[in-house]
Write a structure and sequence with these properties.
By secondary structure, the protein is of the alpha/beta class. The protein has 10 helices and 12 strands. Helix 6 crosses helix 7. The structure holds glutamic acid. Glutamic acid (GLU) is lined by residues 8-10, 42, 182, 196, 200.
């Protein structure tokens, strides 16, 4: 079977350099193998996303030379499909309703990991009395280690029962959460490699668990370093001066790709280069593993 990669942008604003970087590496990884690229708009959050932003994202990807071979339905149009997978989990007896409020979940009594995320203690697992309001739904996780053999980050291990706890797959307002949607979408699209920012590494074990329950093979993972601003912050959509709307006015796509490729260790100097040219010599071994600080970039 040929390699299948994916872009999974959230159309809530212009791409920033971090998105461009992750998208570039995803494209290089799959195209260097002669594989296929799938585009999917992650617009579960209909309040923050729009079809206008989706169209701008497509134009930005094309400007960069990051082409795709097919686009699958945006997540906002897939609720009925997600229902089927939700029902499958329910029929396996793996779901339960959760009525915990936000403040209960964030209370000082709840166990927290060092990075501030909480481990759900299973409060609602055996609830006798159910409050009169719509619940979120959680999936029961097994006491088992999940190992991600990541192309970039090496071995990453998590035991979902101690590191995460039973996690929400559908919110109380009926909206499916990212973990379920992404697993279904990647699985149905036949994605064989998931390349994205390092900030999503800890989502991989939850997705591997759902892949197993849904009967999808595990893809390969590559979680690429984050781009940091000069003061050491992760770039985000708030960094307007580094979004593509501004960058497109100031440089060619080849200049931008050359800067990113040099910062990432793929080429020696920041010389203008196209994604297509880079794909001929791409290898995961060359790619830097640590976060990349933008102060090293020369404009
Ligand atoms: N939609 C997510 C983002 O824009 C990416 C999710 C993924 O790649 O799994 O950050």
């Amino acid at each position: 079977m040929g390699a299948v990669g994916r872009f999974a942008p959230t159309p809530s604003g212009r791409m920033h350099l971090g998105n461009v970087f992750a998208g570039l590496i995803a494209w290089l990884s799959v195209k260097s193998k002669g594989g296929e690229m799938v585009l999917r708009m992650e617009d579960l959050d209909t309040q923050r996303t729009s079809s206008e932003f989706a169209e701008i994202l497509r134009q930005d990807l094309l400007w960069l030379g990051l082409t795709w071979d097919r686009e699958t339905l945006p997540q906002s149009q897939r609720a009925q499909t997600y229902d089927q997978y939700f029902d499958l989990l329910k029929s396996k007896g793996l779901l339960y309703p959760c009525y915990c409020t936000r403040s209960q979940l964030h209370s000082v009594n709840a166990p927290h990991l060092s990075d501030g995320t909480y481990v759900y203690p299973g409060t609602c697992r055996n609830l006798k009395e159910k409050p009169d309001r719509l619940p979120a739904w959680r999936v029961i996780v097994p006491d088992r280690r999940w190992q991600v053999s990541d192309w970039c980050q090496g071995e990453y291990t998590e035991n979902l029962s101690t590191d995460c706890g039973d996690f929400v797959v559908r919110r109380a307002d009926g909206v499916y959460v990212y973990q379920l949607a992404v697993t279904v979408d990647d699985g149905e699209a036949g994605v064989t490699e998931v390349v994205r920012g390092m900030d999503l590494l800890s989502s991989a074990p939850r997705q591997m668990y759902l892949q197993e329950l849904f009967g999808f093979p595990h893809p390969q993972y590559g979680h690429v370093p984050m781009l940091l601003s000069e003061d050491g912050r992760r770039l985000s959509k708030r960094d307007k001066d580094l979004d593509l709307g501004v960058l497109r006015q100031n440089m060619t796509p080849e200049t931008l790709i050359g800067i990113l490729a040099a910062a990432a260790g793929l080429i020696d100097k920041p010389e203008a280069v196209s994604a297509r040219e880079l794909s001929r010599e791409f290898s995961w071994e060359k790619l830097k593993k640590e976060d990349i600080c933008l102060s090293h970039l020369t404009y």
